[in-house]
Structures are given as structure tokens and as C-alpha cells.
Amino acid sequence: MDYIDYYEVLAVPKNADIKEIKKAYRRLARKHHPDLHPNDDNAKKKFQQINEAHTVLSDPEKRAKYDKYGKDWEHAEAYEEAARQQQQYRKSQGAGGFGRTGTRGQYSGEDFSEFFNTMFGGQAGFGGFEREVRYKGQDYHATLSLNLSDVYQTQKHTLSVNGKSIRITIPAGVNDEQVIKIKGHGGAGVNGGPKGDLFIKFAINNNSSFHRDGKDLYKNIDLDLYTAVLGGDKIINTFDGKKVKLKVSPGTQNGAKVKLSGKGFPEYKKEGTFGDLIITFNIKIPSTLSAREKELFQELAKLKGQ
Amino acid sequence: MKSDKLVLVATICDHYSLELPFFDQLDHHGMVEIVQVGQDPYIKENQLSILEKVIRIHHDLQVNLDGVAVILDLVDRIELLQQENRNLRRQIRVY
């Protein structure tokens, strides 16, 4: 293992400032960058040296250590141990070690010289990018068609996605076009990366006589003229099939609305919470009258002075 | 072998600290093809190597994307010429 003179590699004097070092690095990198020299192993080796020299000399801390210990690298074991401990501390503080860190991930020391690895413990790889980049797998998107009555209660469904069966829980009150994410059920990751996610979009078909708006339900109810005028009781079927007796006030007008609190649709992910059921009365006027009925209506009209 | 695996652009952006418009520019220059799946842009897995090459040249040499496009084009031509050169050398040896 030979000592490498990084100043010589970049062809800069020992007292070169950071501007000179960067300038020299750019000039040499343009000349020897392996992406510009296809199938040229010498260019790759040369660029690795330049990159290594730049990594050390452009970092004041590393440069100071190199200047102090570089030539005496055989005695640097004690220093290396201290540096390792320091690096451990930095990691625990959330900062990186030498070179590029953080989201850029894992680096291989193999692209740097043995000298560098002994001195600095093996750091950033060639060009600063890891070779085995891990990517999340592809997200899958699917549409699940259900009837409105299916989503009145929480229920489990078994789906088949790419040949695999997935059992999912669909909470009551899920909305039309709502999308839910099933984590980790998408495509396989690349280079050991995490799996993608499965996104399910709901297409809710209203198979009922109710109109739904979020957690509230709406229904039009026919009401005979006599009950509307005189008042009375009306039996209403709610969405869950139960019957509710509704008091109709005398003189109820066509289009009048009545709210039945808590008789609407379940609220999404709020177990036991329901919206309201809003009833709109549609008063039916008799279209055919018997002779007696006609006579009575005429009598009523006379009473009202018409 | 042709690979049809797709990689989410958002994941790549996150990994390399890139912005989404960078990919629009790559697409515009014809360097990387963006595949739209639903509302999410993806690139094909087999284009990752070219993407990394673009990023390396862009970052290491501080060349703008127009310059990178020219460089990639010239490098392709160098490779073709190298191949042609090798073939010609082989033919000379035969004679």
C-alpha cells in the first residue's frame, strides 16, 4: 500500500486554497471522467484518483488529517480507531461521515484506494452515487365496484391482485371514488427496495331508492292529500330496512322536508356515527273523483267562498 | 433483455434530491422517457443507468442538460467509431 500524494494528483501546490482545488478538480474531471471515455479503464482509474484527491482536499477537516497523518499512515491505526468512534458519534447525532451522506444511502469503499480506506475508513463511492440503488416497487391501482348497500356496514373482501389473494377490510361509509392505500401490496422493489403500494378506488353503485350525499341520505315520499291536510302517521322504511313511524303535521305542504336524525348513512371510520335521513313530501292530488267526492270538494270550495 | 419494470419518479427524486421538473427537462431532451401511470410519472428500470450517467455528468462536471445531451450524443458516436475501428483492425489482421 503506497502513500498517495493528493496534491500531485490534482497538480496543485500544498498551500492551494479551496478555489484552486475545485478548479483543478473540474479541469481534470472533464478530461478524465469515465462517462466521457467509454471502454477506457485508464480513464476510470485516473478519475477515481482525482475524485479521491478532491474528496480529501476539498474537506477542511479531512485535509487537515491527511496533512497531519498522510505520510505516516503506517502509524495511523490509533488515529483510525479514534476517527471510527467519532464517526459513530456523528451517526448517532443524525449527521453523516465523510463524503456524501443521508438519502444518497450506502457507499462502497472499493472505488477508493486502500490508502484512503486505511486513512478514512472507507467512504464515498465513485462519482458519489451508490451502485446498488434501491427503489420502491411500482404502485398498483385497482378499482373495486360495490353496491351502496355493501358499504352500509364494515365488511371484509378478498381481492385477487396479480394472482395473489388479499383480504381487506372496507370500513362502512366509504365514498364513491374514494381511494384507499394498502401498503406493500404493489410491485416488488428493485435491488431489495421496498414493495410498492396498492391503491384501491371505490366505484359505488347506488342500488337503493335513497340519494346519498356523504353521510346524509335523502328520500322522496308520496303523501296522500287527506293526511297532508288533516295530519296523521306515515310509516317510513329507513336504509337498513327498519320501519319508522313519522308524525305528519296537519297542513303539510308539497315539498316540505322532515329530518330524521341519525337515520342516514354511517360516517366513514367513525364507528356508530350516522348522518341524517331527510324526507321530502310529495303530495299526491287525486286525479279521479267519485260523484260523492266531487260533491264534497265542491261543498268545501263553497265554504272557503270559491 | 428488455425490462418493463417501472420506477416511480418521486422515489428517484427523493433518493437523488432532485426536483420533478428535472425529469420534464430530461424527457424534453429525449434522454429519459417518462411513462405516465395514472397521475404518477415513472421511468423504465432499464433507463436508470442512463439517468445516473446524466446525473453524474451534470453534477460532477457542472454541465447543463443541453450540454449533457450533446455529450451523450458524442459519446455514442465515439463508441460507434471505436467499434468500427476494432472491426477494421480485425479485417486488416485477416489480410
Give your account of this protein's structure.
- The complex is a heterodimer of chains A (306) and B (95).
- Chain A has helices spanning 6-10, 18-32, 41-57, 60-69, 77-92, 114-120, 225-230, 291-303, and strands at 140-147, 155-161, 164-170, 179-182, 198-205, 211-213, 216-224, 232-237, 243-248, 257-260, 277-284.
- Chain A has 306 residues and is an alpha+beta fold.
- In chain A, the strands form four sheets. Chain A has a four-stranded mixed beta sheet with strand order 6-7-11-10. A three-stranded mixed beta sheet of chain A has the order 1-5-4, with no helix packed on it. Chain A has a two-stranded antiparallel ribbon with strand order 2-3.
- In chain A, helix 2 (18-32) packs antiparallel against helix 3 (41-57).
- The longest helix of chain A has 17 residues, at 41-57.
- By secondary structure, chain B is an alpha+beta fold.
- Helices cover 63% and strands 13% of the residues of chain B.
- Chain B has four helices and three strands; from the N terminus they run E-H-H-E-E-H-H.
- Chain A binds chain B through residues 26, 29-30, 33, 35-36, 38-39, 103-105, 127-129, 133, 135-136, 138-139, 141, 187, 190, 193, 196, and chain B through 5-8, 11-12, 14-17, 37-38, 40, 42, 45, 48, 52-53, 55-57, 59-62, 71, 75, 78-79, 82.
Which structural class matches the secondary elements of chain B? alpha+beta
Task: Please estimate the helix content of chain B.
Answer: 55-70%
Largest interface (C-beta under 8 Å)? A-B, 24 and 30 residues
Count, helices of chain A: 8
* Number of distinct helices of chain B: 4
Question: Using DSSP, what is the number of strands of chain B?
Answer: 3
Lateral arrangement of strands in the main beta sheet of chain A: 6-7-11-10
**Class by SSE composition of chain A:** alpha+beta
Element pattern of chain A in H and E: HHHHHHEEEEEEEHEEEEH
- Biggest pleated sheet of chain A: 4 strands, mixed
